[in-house]
Design brief:
With about 375 residues, the protein is α+β, with helices and mostly antiparallel strands. The chain has ten helices and nine strands. It has a seven-stranded mixed β-sheet, sandwiched between helices. The chain has a two-stranded antiparallel sheet with strand order 8-9. Helix 9 packs parallel to helix 10.
């Protein structure tokens, strides 16, 4: 990375972060220059080779294993050839992006008891680059109910994990879907997915940083995105992971990796494989959110108890008639955090790894 590119990647406060409104027209994913802008800020699309070659997450094989696990609902006896032909007809009749996402994509995605939203403007998130690009607006995303995460943590990390100013919207998004109609631009769709996933990966990283700064960078991927093009019937799956900045004055870097692609309208077998990957991806990313949120809640509880204990000891130490208050017998291990990672083989529900909580709260970057 040359010095000019590095200097462009240094954090610049603009727009909402600096408090200065900007009337300059912002660049969107529909502009071919959008991708290079992301690259200049360390957000690398699938297949991009930087100075050290392309990077894959350490858990890429584990993700593949989890996403390929069979689903009974997609067995040949339940998802029959007739259902496949119905899907193909719906895809043929979908002439616009909205129709593709409202009538075709749901057949692939299936039903899941997971908080999700469509076409929600991500207006609450801090700028990912320099404020010169539009805010993201994914066609579809999964997240978690806001009430699942400690309110103080939500407030502290709001600009990274609460995508919308509508505070009831699902937070910590880490599964995304972008679609296009028959005449839509596949390159635009992919650029939108790159942007979505980088925002999701940053949110995951910030919450992991809160839980334990020592393990925030683990070279694993926790976000997944899909793109679907109605004209070709192609479903493509990606994942993105976070790595430390190469320049200390820059922000974290984000690397997208393609997982697999499927010609969904070709035959029933291929459809079942693609739908299996996507539905398992929704389950997997949900598991990751739940594990990380549980770890953050445990950290928040431990921090609260630690502060209360310190306050009590301080007040009692001022009374000369009271015996010296002993140190709390509660150790940090009793508040150990179940930080679920993707760095090991998964067979069904992931096995949590135990990570010690720290007595201080990491400052968000």
């Amino acid at each position: 990375m040359d010095s000019s590119q590095s200097s462009r990647r240094k954090r610049v406060k603009t727009g909402r972060e600096s408090g200065t409104p900007s009337s300059t027209r912002k660049t969107s994913a529909y502009d071919p220059a959008f991708e290079q802008h992301l690259i200049d800020y360390g957000i690398y699309p699938e297949g991009y080779n930087n100075d050290e070659g392309s990077e894959e997450p350490a858990n890429i094989e584990d993700i593949h294993r989890r996403l390929a696990q069979p689903r009974p609902s997609l067995s040949p006896s339940r998802f029959t050839r007739k259902k496949f032909l119905d899907f193909r007809q719906k895809n043929r009749e979908a002439l616009t992006e909205n129709t593709v996402m409202s009538k075709v994509f749901p057949v692939i995605a299936g039903t899941a008891e997971v908080p999700s939203q469509e076409n929600l403007y991500f207006g609450n998130l801090k700028d990912l680059t320099d404020g010169s690009i539009t805010k993201a607006k994914p066609d579809f995303y999964d997240g978690s109910h806001p009430t699942e995460l400690n309110a103080r943590v939500r407030k502290q990390l709001s600009g990274y994990i609460e995508p919308s100013t509508k505070k009831t919207a699902p937070l910590l998004p880490n599964f995304f879907a972008e679609g296009k109609g028959p005449d839509g631009n596949a390159a635009v769709c992919k650029r939108q997915a790159v942007y979505d996933e980088a925002l999701g990966a940053r949110g995951i990283y910030q919450l992991r940083l809160y839980v334990d700064p020592k393990t925030a960078y683990d070279n694993n991927a926790y976000t997944i995105a899909s793109t679907y093009h109605g004209g070709t019937g192609t479903l493509t799956m990606y994942t993105t992971h976070t790595t430390p900045p190469k320049d200390p004055d820059s922000s974290a870097e984000y690397h997208m990796t393609q997982l697999k692609a499927f010609a969904m309208t070709s035959d029933p077998k291929t459809f079942r494989q693609g739908a299996t990957f996507l539905r398992n991806a929704r389950d997997l990313t949900c598991d990751k959110r739940k594990g990380l949120i549980a770890a953050a809640n445990a950290k928040a509880l431990y921090t609260k108890n630690l502060c209360f204990s310190s306050s009590t000891q301080s007040s009692m130490s001022h009374s000369p008639n009271e015996p010296t208050h002993p140190e709390s017998e509660t150790s940090p291990d009793e508040f150990a955090l179940d930080l679920v990672t993707l760095d090991r083989p998964n067979h069904g529900t992931p096995t949590p790894t135990r990570t010690k909580s720290l007595p201080h709260v990491a400052t968000s970057q």
